Amino acid sequence: MGSELAVVWDEALLEYDLGGHHPLHPIRLDLTMRLARSLGLLDGVDAVKPQPATEADLLRVHTAEYLAAVRAAPLSGYEAGHGLGTEDNPIFDRMHEASALVAGASIGAAEQIVSGRSDRAVNIGGGLHHAMADNAAGFCVYNDCSVAIAWMLEQGVERIAYLDVDVHHGDGVQAAFYDDPRVMTVSLHQHPVTLWPGTGFATEVGKDGADGTAVNIPLPPGTGDSGWRRAFHAVVPSLLADFRPEVLVTQCGADPHRDDPLADLSLSVDGQRAIYQDLRELAENCAGGKWLALGGGGYSLFRVVPRAWTHLLATLLDRDIAPETTIPEDWMAYATRRAQNIALPTSMSDGSDPSYEPWTGVTTTAVDTAIRDARHAVFPLHGLDPADSRD
Questions:
Q1: What pLDDT is attached to residue 76?
Q2: How far is CA 212 from CA 73, 86, 204, 383, in A?
Q3: By the 8 A CB rule, do 307 and 345 touch?
Q4: How far is it between the farthest Cα atoms of the chain?
Q5: Do the domain assignments include residue 57?
Q6: What family is it from (predicted)?
Q7: How many helices and strands in the chain, by DSSP H and E?
Q8: Catalytic-labelled residue, pool 169, 189, 191, 311
Q9: Can you give the pTM of this predicted structure?
Q10: Are 6 and 48 in contact (CB under 8 A)?
């Protein structure tokens, strides 16, 4: 049995900075770690210092041509090809070095689990799930999720489940393992007709001997805590129980929250806290407790991300924070100086009830339609009955 949690962290991870007013601002990581420390969550927890991913690490997922382009981009101008130098993915100084450190941090977290030193590990600076083999996309230069998974496969891990709760489809990770039966990718996201990147339909199920290992649950805009959790419980636990992963990897984007400016789901911080607890239970029941957690999206930098990911850290540590907990004054003072007149939350709750009614097999709402479509697309490929709510 490993230690309770390996937290991979160094302030150097803040150097993954796309600049100016870019939505993916590193202050969200700074505020998260400060809030966790202010609440005493990290007392007695020594952070594991990350090391940059090597070229060999990155080449398990990315092409040599793309790595060369990333290295050269800061010297080659504003338009470097491969998705670099765009509004979403601007070029910044030491881009390769900062991106390689994020990927290395996720490998470092994976190594803690594979070595047996920890059963759970986290890199909140990770979760850059949109980067493809040969191009940057969606604020992501190197796909640390895929890099860490590929590293674990090379170490001999035989089955890995990747579960993505970001509001955007986990397209880069799905693409990396779409024909690999050793990796099941599961993504719950806003419906692709209504949100970038426009992929993640229920009919995307894998190929070439990996049929059924890509699972997509596209949710209608406006889906809140109860609908999200209803869909999760109606689809995911049965599939993971059948797949029997050795490690559960989760991308924990905080952008399904109702305050997020880039999307249209309607979760609360209370719902996100409940989801992280659902993930913990899933890891215990389906993956022998082996859980690698990564960050991801989240663009309500002051009001949402720090609270959501502090709840994530608390859940990973089995030190759950009561929703009504007051946010410490020292964090409020620090955030106020940087928030530019944004109204800050005063507690770890949005005052919402995240409970849900389990799916019974009846389709009565748009969320139920999403459940039905996902189950019908994938369940038969696992010998499960899509119409039986007991599966």
A1: 80
A2: 38, 34, 9, 10
A3: yes
A4: 58
A5: no
A6: Belongs to the histone deacetylase family.
A7: 11, 7
A8: 169
A9: 0.98
A10: yes
The answer to the question of residue 61 being in a domain is: no
Q: Does residue 86 form part of some domain?
A: no
Which amino acid is residue 87, in one-letter code? E
Helix (H, G, I), strand (E, B) or coil at 172: helix
Q: In whole angstroms, what is the distance from residue 373 CA to residue 277 CA?
A: 26
In a domain, 174, yes or no: yes
The DSSP result for 323-343, as a single string, is TTPBPPHHHHHHHHHHSTTPP
Helix (H, G, I), strand (E, B) or coil at 233: helix
Query: Residue 315 and residue 61: Cα distance in Å, rounded?
Result: 30
Show the domain range for 288.
Answer: 6-51+104-382
22 annotated active-site: no
- Alpha-carbon distance 322 to 320, whole Å? 7
Mean pLDDT per 10-residue interval, the chain, length 391 residues: 82 96 97 98 97 98 97 81 95 97 99 98 98 98 99 98 98 98 98 98 98 98 98 98 98 98 98 98 98 98 98 98 98 94 96 97 95 98 94 88
The half-sphere exposure of 238 on its side-chain side, counting CA atoms within 13 A, is 24
Cα dist from 211 to 188, 197, 202, 350, whole Å: 18, 22, 13, 40
User: In this predicted structure, what is the pLDDT of residue 1?
Assistant: 40
Which amino acid belongs to residue 43? Answer: D
Q: Are 218 and 228 in contact (CB under 8 A)?
A: no
Q: What b/e readout covers 365-377, taking b as 16+ CB neighbours within 10 angstroms?
A: eebbebbbbbbeb
Q: 6-7 and 120-123: which strand pairing?
A: parallel
277 touches 315 (CB < 8 A):
yes
Q: Which CA distances in Å does 173 have to 48, 142, 351, 390? A: 25, 11, 34, 29
Tokens of 45: 């927890």
